[in-house]
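stage 2 :: seqdesign
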């Protein structure tokens, strides 16, 4: 593990541990009477982030690597089943840490957001689609950006231009992106209120008078490319380079953090694996910002 990754892991662990001491309610529920876990919740979440950064999509392989290479940082490591079982109950803690770290960056105050969704494939066979515990939530959908059909979910993101995740949600592959975006904004009214006169840049699928009226009522301005038959809209010259920015952010999740190789087989397992990747990117941006790195979204120093 590199010196940079070791420093990031230490800083992240300390931050999570301090937050759990300040707000014990964030810790996953466990019986008051019983054997205390040898691996703390802060260590558990830090381990999940490290596995995402280092590209381990198999929990068994990751734990074997951690025992061999990270014994000094994590004196005790559970078996794969115990690690998996505990990790599935940390969703609320991970969500809280994503928001807390994001708010602690200079990028949080950016006055422009980009909105988009990207596929999270969950299977490739009819048998998987029929028998999977994700059936009914995961759906068949189409990704226009890559001209392919897939069975799974969509990760909806609202990010700053620097790639910092501000809002996020998982939905079925056929969910209306506009409805999901409105729901994300409605569930985070405090975030919207703290960013008055914010501009949201999205693709042409985010259209409709009613949709734009809802955004305008929240003090948000929508910029998107014109659809066929529409007159040219404001900001048209910005969309082509910004489309590359959006695709680059998606690629950080899919190419570097293996978003579609999550390995989740249950709803709770899939959700926490996706959240761990969102936290990994947020933690990298947070630490790069704190240490004065020129490129905040660069994972190069931490992925080996």
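stage 2 :: out
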């Amino acid at each position: 593990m590199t010196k940079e990754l070791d420093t990031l892991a230490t800083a992240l662990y300390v931050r999570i541990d301090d937050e759990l001491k300040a707000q014990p309610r964030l810790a996953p529920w466990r019986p008051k009477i019983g054997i205390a876990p040898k691996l703390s919740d802060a260590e558990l979440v830090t381990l999940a982030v490290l596995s995402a950064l280092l590209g381990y999509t198999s929990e068994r392989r990751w734990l074997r690597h951690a025992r061999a290479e990270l014994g000094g940082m994590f004196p005790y490591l559970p078996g794969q089943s115990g690690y998996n079982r505990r990790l599935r109950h940390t969703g609320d803690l991970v969500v809280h840490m994503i928001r807390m770290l994001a708010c602690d960056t200079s990028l949080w105050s950016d006055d422009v957001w980009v909105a988009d969704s990207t596929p999270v494939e969950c299977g490739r066979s009819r048998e998987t689609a029929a028998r999977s515990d994700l059936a009914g939530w995961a759906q068949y959908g189409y990704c226009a950006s890559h001209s392919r059909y897939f069975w799974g979910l969509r990760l909806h993101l609202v990010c700053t231009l620097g790639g910092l995740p501000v809002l996020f949600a998982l939905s079925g592959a056929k969910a209306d992106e506009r409805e999901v975006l409105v729901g994300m904004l409605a569930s985070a009214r405090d975030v919207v209120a703290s960013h008055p006169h914010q501009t949201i840049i999205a693709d042409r699928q985010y259209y409709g008078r009613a949709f734009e009226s809802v955004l305008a009522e929240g003090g948000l301005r929508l910029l998107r490319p014109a659809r066929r038959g529409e007159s040219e809209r404001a900001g048209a010259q910005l969309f082509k380079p910004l489309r590359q920015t959006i695709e680059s952010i998606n690629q950080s999740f899919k190419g570097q953090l293996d978003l579609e190789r999550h390995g989740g087989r249950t709803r709770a397992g899939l959700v926490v694996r996706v959240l761990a990747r969102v936290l990994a990117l947020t933690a990298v941006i947070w630490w790069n910002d704190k240490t004065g790195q020129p490129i905040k979204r660069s994972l190069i120093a931490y992925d080996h």
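stage 3 :: structure notes
- Residues 267-290 form the longest helix (24 residues).
- The first strand starts at residue 112 and ends at 123.
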